[in-house]
Amino acid sequence: MKTENTGARRRIGVMGGTFDPIHHGHLVAASEVAASLGLDEVIFVPTGQPWQKQGRDVSEAEHRYLMTVIATASNPSFSVSRVDIDRAGLTYTIDTLKDLKLQYPDAEFYFITGADALAQIFKWKDIDKLWPLAHFVGVTRPGHVLSDFGRKEDITLTEIPAMAISSTDCRQRVAQGKPVWYLVPDGVVQYIAKHRLYHPKPEPAVKPAEGKDVRV
Ligand SMILES: Nc1ncnc2c1ncn2[C@@H]1O[C@H](COP(=O)(O)OP(=O)(O)OP(=O)(O)O)[C@@H](O)[C@H]1O
Ligand SMILES: O=C(O)c1ccc[n+]([C@@H]2O[C@H](COP(=O)([O-])O)[C@@H](O)[C@H]2O)c1
């Protein structure tokens, strides 16, 4: 359903993500939701330290932030916020939305999530305090079931073109020397290559023991 923005309040989409790296699945999700709900803009918010990804190697926040800036630069309705990466400690959406509310006191927020993230939402910190801060928009994602869990007043479901892309797959492809062209924006391909993100770590140099030959 397409809804028109006739009121005075700015309708802002919030696309939170680890973006390690940002890919076309994220960009299509934001673009489709913006069009179907008539949003004025979408703010991409790279996470600082995602608590649910602890124990996993997450790339430095500045790299993820810069890749998100590069990926969104050509769309005048997209911007990137540093609120999560500049806040110390683990990242929780309750803090993201409170910080954005301070910056945009009159806005209505639409927090965009893929079906996989939405399925975990009842485990998010202070979930009962989140509903008044934003409306949630769940988007389809291949391999995941999309549901509003009976919370129609708080969660809108939106079907988007199926993009079977994940950041995990992009990282693995780079590590295996496979291309990620057309899975991520061109500038992000180049950023990954320039900073050697996701590439296998070079083998440590073999230090010969003194006075002994090293066989290779
Ligand atoms: N291909 C996709 N289609 C729809 N939504 C997506 C897609 N990829 C990611 N999302 C959504 O974008 C948000 C941010 O996702 P995230 O940055 O964790 O990417 P990811 O591809 O799931 O990463 P990873 O594989 O590292 O877990 C989440 O709400 C996620 O569900
Ligand atoms: O607030 C929470 O407890 C919480 C738990 C899991 C995910 N989130 C948010 O959901 C968004 C997508 O997260 P991820 O891990 O799929 O990239 C991102 O903005 C996270 O901060 C938030």
From TrEMBL:
It comes from the Bacteria. Signal peptide: none annotated. Residues 14-173 form the Cytidyltransferase-like domain. Keywords: ATP-binding, NAD, Nucleotide-binding, Nucleotidyltransferase, Pyridine nucleotide biosynthesis, Transferase. It is an enzyme of class 2 (transferase). Catalyzes the reversible adenylation of nicotinate mononucleotide (NaMN) to nicotinic acid adenine dinucleotide (NaAD). This is Probable nicotinate-nucleotide adenylyltransferase. It comes from Micrococcoides hystricis.
